[in-house]
Amino acid sequence: MKILSPRVHGYIDYAVAALFLLAPSLFGFGGLPETLCYILGAVHVGMTLLTAFPLGAAKIIPFPVHGALEAAVAVFLVAAPWLFSFDAASAARNFYLVSGVAIGLVWLVTDYRSAYATTTASGRYRSEHGSFS
Question: Which of 1, 67, 90, 121 gives 20 to 30 Å between its CA and that of 78?
Fold first, then answer.
């Protein structure tokens, strides 16, 4: 069931990026998990700005590609505590596990096909089957 529109997904993307940038301070972890959070937050903002969907700025990355990258990130987040040996740090481990599962759930319920949309000069969105504003 694909219940999230590209626009709603965009709002979630910006919130997720902000959460990654704030998580080390909010949940009190440092070191490598902190550094990874800052990198992930910055990359997520960049990818969102470059995605071809309503809240993207440059519209370079097709929305389905954005979705595939997010699916990979979800798996990476769940594995990260063990890949980078911070599984004993409960706050960081739990943040990464919950984030991975949450991003995976967002991926499952987002309608990536509806975003075969490109902007026109008027700023409206058009698909293969018509336009929607």
Answer: 1
126 in helix, strand or coil?
strand
**53 dihedral zone (left: phi>0; alpha: psi -120 to 50; beta):** beta
pLDDT digits (tens, 9 = 90+) for 75-125: 999 999 999 999 999 999 999 999 999 999 999 999 998 745 544 333 444
Per-residue pLDDT, averaged over 46-69, amounts to: 96
**Are the C-beta atoms of residues 6 and 63 closer than 8 Å to each other?**
yes
| Contact (Cβ atoms closer than 8 angstroms) between residue 114 and residue 6 | yes
Specify whether the CB–CB gap between 52 and 118 falls below 8 A. Answer: yes
Tell me how far apart the alpha carbons of residues 129 and 15 are, in angstroms, rounded to a whole number: 31
pTM of the model: 0.85
Give the rounded distance of the alpha carbon of 4 from its chain centre. 13
